[in-house]
Amino acid sequence: MVTDVLPCENGHAQERALFGALLKTVEAGDRWIADRNFCTRAFLCDIDTREAFFIIREHLGLPCEIGEALRACGRTETGSVAHQRVTVVDEHGQAPRWRRVRITLTHATRDGATIVHILTNLPHGVAATRVADLYRKRWTLETAFQHLEAYFHSEINTLGYPKAALFGFCLALVAYNLLGVVLAALRGVHGEETVDEEVSLYYVANEIATTYHGIMIAIPAPEWDVFYAMSPADLADILLDLAQRVRLQAIRKSHRRPKTPQPPRKKPVRKGHVATAKLLLNRRAKLTTP
Asked: What CA–CA distances, in Å, run from 199 to 51, 89, 126, 183, 254?
């Protein structure tokens, strides 16, 4: 589920420009998993200082001192795992010691990489193989953005003004969280593997979109107030009861035959993308220039 959003009107803004606002959401005991774009000395040290934990892919630009030789510690589904101690000196001269986990991949990534390094400050009791498995879950974030675009139309082309586009995107995030609750109830009754493999998110989203207005006519808004006063546990019991009555056949995925490979086509030359926020800012500047 999406719990925090940091809106930015400039579509060309670098993610690192928002680190200050992002760090304000870090709480003690959190576990943050991120790609190598977030692997900066200040970001990692701030998370460590706030008594939270991180599992972040190492960036080549991060200065760190190797403290010991690599030690093999098992295998995961993607390859063999080894780890070692490293030291990173922060801007105040402090030198926290973390772990550097190396995964030698059985199959290369899309970029051709065969070795992946992950930095973590998790306690040594958390096995390096466990750290590697946790990092693999980062891709669920990429899947979430794919679902937002495909099922909730989070990026509407006609919403050219940045504030309107951000508002529409945040509404899609709320709908995505609601879908997450529905799927959790279905998993609790029909099993996680069955729901993940057989249930179509498109059909679930379409069912909600097409029946919502009819339900609000048949059951007036005041009738729903009883759910607002419920505790999370009571509401969960009702959702599980309702999930038992869902016919999975009506929302089952349609499995297609393998597609016939198409010959490669020449792609048309595309013009460079320009951030709408920059265009509006330049137009305002021209209008105010004497």
From this structure: 39, 48, 34, 9, 9
CB 106 within 8 A of CB 84: no
How many domains does the chain fold into? 2
pLDDT in tens, 1-26: 888 999 988 878 888 899 999 999 99
Report pTM. 0.75
For residues 212 and 239, state if they share a domain: yes
Task: Please enumerate in sequence order all residues whose Cβ is within 8 A of that of 150, keeping only pairs 6 or more positions apart, or say none.
Answer: 202
Query: Angle formed by the axes of helices 232-243 and 162-190, to 10°?
Result: 70
Mean pLDDT of 210-223: 87
Tell me which residue has tokens 């990092």: 135
Q: Which residues span the domain enclosing 68?
A: 15-137
Q: What are phi and psi of 86, to 5 degrees?
A: -135, 160
Same domain, 56 and 162: no
Q: Tell me how far apart the alpha carbons of residues 29 and 25 are, in angstroms, rounded to a whole number.
A: 12
CB atoms closer than 10 angstroms to residue 124? 9
Mean pLDDT value across the chain: 88
Cross-strand partners of 252 = 199
